[in-house]
Amino acid sequence: MQKPTYLSDSELVALAWQARDLASAPYSNFQVGAALTASDGRVFTGCNVESSSYGLSICAERVALTKAISEGAREFVTIAVAAQGKGTVSPCGACRQLLHDYAPNLRVLLSGQEGKHTEHPLKELLPLAFSAEQLSK
Ligand SMILES: [Zn+2]
To answer: I need a labelling partner for 13 at 20 to 30 A (CA). Which of 37, 62, 72, 109 fits?
Structure first.
């Protein structure tokens, strides 16, 4: 099998910004985009999608991850998250947990301004994470 090629971090961040343009955030007016690289090189994007029943809203990161899983991807390398807020915007707790369930060694790129990003290991963003291993007795 051919070794997969991955987009550069800057390219992945640019895709997250593009995905952000598609956000459906009429309630918060806070648009977020994400781009997730699977270990096979495929990239899955997501944007936040809000509901009038606020609790049903879903974050860009989880949209990207569930899209990827629904298309057969199971291992992931890097996610880029793009949002314009105060400083960089990092994934919420729910997203951190779901990402950790599928990709505990994920690299997370946070971009609060186009063309710039910072890099963080997911393990740094979710220390002492709950994991499936803890389900065994
Ligand atoms: Zn989230």
So the answer is: 72
